[in-house]
Amino acid sequence: MKMPFGLSTEDKVTKATEEYGQQLRDLYKHECYGSKKKESCHILAEFYASIEMDIDKAKELYEHTCKELDFNESCLALGNLYLTNKKFKDPEKAMSLFQESCAKKSPGACNNAGLMYQKGVKGSTIEKDLPKAIELFTKACDYGHRNGCFNLSAIYLTGKDGIPKDMKKAFELSLKSCEMSHPWGCVNVSRMYTLGDGVEKNPQEAEKFKRLAKLYSGQDSTPVS
């Protein structure tokens, strides 16, 4: 409902939010261009991409922060742009950035490069290479990336393209991803305890991990002991 005079409450909230956003942008601009803070440059690029929807400005700043300031998160974001954005799509550039960042122990970059090799990228020179995908997922998992652990577990769980099934490895990796709050990792652990795949059957543990899967997917807020 409109107030008798001036802006409505909703308009005031919107205006205050916009002003706060502008203040944050100005702060990060000062810290980025004035103090050369890597994190602030990256956050400013994220602001351009997600708030102002200026993808050209975001790309320019991601590139600067990645190459000039050597900030891995910006290299990862730039790689994602080259991989998914129609305007800038260039899978080879994306892979190059992911590989470089992975070498600097960026878990997300290792995982993304692994995903590209897992199936190959249509319309590019990047072909399917499961051994390379396994190598990259292993690094991502070792660096603490839950999706890297889960993706690796799925390969050993199904076994294909010359990679044999290894249920023990699949269980260990599923458990590791579950411990990092990956709901589908918990689902797999629960099922493996139920069936006795890669681990001895244990109905109690199966139920525990089933509840964890629900907790991590937001279906249940009850703590699991």
Task: Write a structural description.
The protein has 225 residues and is mostly helical. The protein has 3 domains: 24-89; 104-144; 148-224. Helix content is 70%, strand content 0%. The protein contains 11 helices and no strands. It has helices at 9-34, 38-50, 55-67, 72-84, 91-103, 107-119, 130-142, 146-158, 167-179, 183-195, 203-216. It is globular and about 60 Å long. The termini are far apart. The model is unreliable at 1-5 (pLDDT under 50).
SSE layout and pairings?
Blueprint: H1 9-34, H2 38-50, H3 55-67, H4 72-84, H5 91-103, H6 107-119, H7 130-142, H8 146-158, H9 167-179, H10 183-195, H11 203-216
Helix pairs in contact: 1-2, 2-3, 3-4, 4-5, 5-6, 6-7, 7-8, 8-9, 9-10, 10-11
